Amino acid sequence: MSNVDTLFRPAELGKLNLKNRIVMAPMTRTYSPGNVPNDLVVDYYRRRAAGGVGLIITEGTFVGHKAASGYPNVPAFAGNDALAGWKRVVDAVHAEGGKIAPQLWHVGAIRRPGVMPGGDTPGHSPSGMVAPGKVTGHAMTQDDIDDVVAAFAQAAADAKDVGFDAIELHGAHGYLIDQFFWDGTNQRDDSYGGDLAARSKFALEVVAACRAAVGEDFPIIFRFSQWKQQDYTARLCETPEALSDFLGPLCDAGVDIFHCSTRRFWEPEFEGSDLNLAGWTRKLTGKPAITVGSVGLNADFLPEDGSANFNAAEPASIDNLITRLEQDEFDLVAVGRALIANPEWANQVADGNFEKLAAYEKEMLKELK
Ligand SMILES: Cc1cc2nc3c(=O)[nH]c(=O)nc-3n(C[C@H](O)[C@H](O)[C@H](O)COP(=O)(O)O)c2cc1C
Fold first, then answer.
1. Which of 27, 290, 362 has most ligand 1 atoms within 8 Å of CB, for mutation?
2. CB neighbours (10 Å) of residue 228?
3. How many angstroms is it from 190 CA to the middle of ligand 1?
4. Tens digit of pLDDT for each residue in 280-312?
5. Phi and psi of 290, rounded to 5°?
6. Sign of the CA dihedral with 328 first, then 239, 336, and 323 last
7. Residue 362 neighbours by CB distance under 10 Å
8. What are phi and psi of 96, to 5 degrees?
9. Most ligand 1 atoms within 8 A of CB, residue of 23, 28, 55, 290 to mutate
10. What is the pLDDT of residues 236-254, one digit of tens each?
11. Whether 138 contacts 73, CB under 8 Å
12. Which domain holds residue 252?
C-alpha cells in the first residue's frame, strides 16, 4: 500500500497554505433555520477541523439575491445574522487549526418557489430553463445579471471581512453559473449565449467582480463539472483543447485554484490518457487543482446512479489516489460522504486506522453530527 503521508504533506499554493492535502467537499445540509448557521452548524464544522481536515469548503451558502436560494434551511451568505453565524464557524475552525472557505451559490432555475427568502420569486436562469427544453422560471434580463454579479461580489467581500481564508464559487452541477455554461439551458441570443466562450461571459463577470472585491491576495477557488444533476452524461468540453479554451479565460479573470467535480476520481477524462479532470486542469492551466469523487468509498459498491450506500474506505481506492497525488496529478483531495460518516476521517487515515472508518449511509443525512 502507498504511504498515506503524501496526503499529509503541507500544501503551499501561492495565496493559500494548508497543513495537508485533505479538503472537506461542500455539502448542503439544510440545518440552518432562518438561514442562519447556529450552534449545531458551528460544532459540525469544528468537529471536521479537529478531525484533521486541512481546508473545509462549506455547504453551498446563497448570495444576497432574491432568487439565489433553492432549498429550505440553507444558510445565507448575506445579512448581519447569517454573517455573524458564519463568523462563529470560522472562529471555531481556526481554533482547531483548520482553514475554511464558503461555497458561494446561486441555484438558478433549480429554485423551488416558496423557499425563503424570496418567497414566490421564480427561479432565475439564462433562458428560464431548468433542463433542456423545460422552462420553469424567469429568463434573466441584463439588470438581473448585474444584480447577481453584484451579489456575488458583495458575498466575496463579506467572506474576507468575516475572516474566511478563501472563497469557492459554485460553477458546477447545473446551478446558475453552470446553467449559463451549458448549451442545454443557455439558449440566449445576446452576448451571454452562443458558443462556450460566450456562455462563459456570466462566469467571467462573476469571477472578475469577486476578484475586484477581495483584491489580488485573497484566494478564489472555482468549482466546475462536466456533469449536471439534470444529466449525468452532459459535457461542456469533449477534448483537452476545448477544456484549455474554457479554463484560460477563467484564469485570466482571477481564479487561483480549480475544484474539478467528478463523481469518481479514478475515471479518465479524455481518451488516450489516465488523467482525470483535475489532472487535465492542472496540466493545461498550471493552476492548483482539487480532485473529488468517491474518495474513501469502495468502488465496487457504487450503484450506477451514483447515489448513496458506499462501503467504508478501502485500501485499494486510497492507493490509487495516493499514487496520483505522488505524481502531482492534482494538489488537493476533497472528501465528501466519507467525512459525513467520519468527522475524524483525516486523523484516522493518518494513523492508518482504516478498520475504524464507518461506511457512509444515506440515513446519516437525517442529523447533523
Ligand atoms: C449530501 C450532499 C450534499 C452536497 N451538496 C453540495 C453542495 O452544496 N455544493 C456542491 O458543490 N456539491 C455538493 N455535493 C457534492 C459533493 O461536494 C461531492 O462532490 C460529492 O459528494 C462527491 O464526493 P464524495 O464521493 O466524496 O461524497 C453534495 C454531496 C452530498 C452527498
1. 27
2. 23
3. 33
4. 999 999 999 999 999 987 644 344 444 443 344
5. -105, 130
6. negative
7. 12
8. -95, 5
9. 28
10. 999 999 999 999 999 999 9
11. no
12. 3-366
In the prediction, which pLDDT does 157 show?
Answer: 98
Q: H or E stretch including 326?
A: helix 315-326
Q: Is 103 in the pocket of ligand 1 (CB under 6 A)?
A: yes
Q: What pLDDT does 301 receive?
A: 39
- For 306-332, what is each residue's pLDDT tens digit? 444 334 444 457 889 999 999 999 999
Asked whether 294 lines ligand 1 (CB < 6 A), one says yes
26 close to ligand 1 (CB < 6 Angstrom): yes
Query: Which residues are catalytic, by number?
Result: 175
Provide the domain count of the chain.
Answer: 1
Indicate which CATH number applies to the domain containing 306.
Answer: 3.20.20.70
Rounded mean pLDDT, 178-198: 98
Name the residue with cell 479573470. Answer: 253
2: pLDDT confidence band, cut at 50, 70 and 90? Answer: low
Q: Which atom of ligand 1 is nearest to the CA of 264?
A: 25
Instruction: Summarize pLDDT for 212-223 with one digit per residue, the tens.
Output: 999 999 999 999
- Atom 29 (ligand 1): residue with closest C-alpha? 27
Going by CA atoms, what residue is nearest to atom 10 of ligand 1?
26
Nearest CA to ligand 1 atom 6: 27
Q: Is the CB–ligand 1 distance for residue 59 below 6 Å?
A: yes
Using CA atoms, how far residue 25 sits from 265, 303, 353, 354, in Å, is: 13, 20, 21, 20
Q: Hey, whose CA ends up nearest to atom 25 of ligand 1?
A: 294
116-172 per-position pLDDT tens digit: 899 999 999 999 999 999 999 999 999 999 999 999 999 999 999 999 999 999 999
Distance 347 CA to ligand 1 centre (A): 21
The answer to whether the predicted template modeling score (pTM) of the entire model surpasses 0.90 is yes
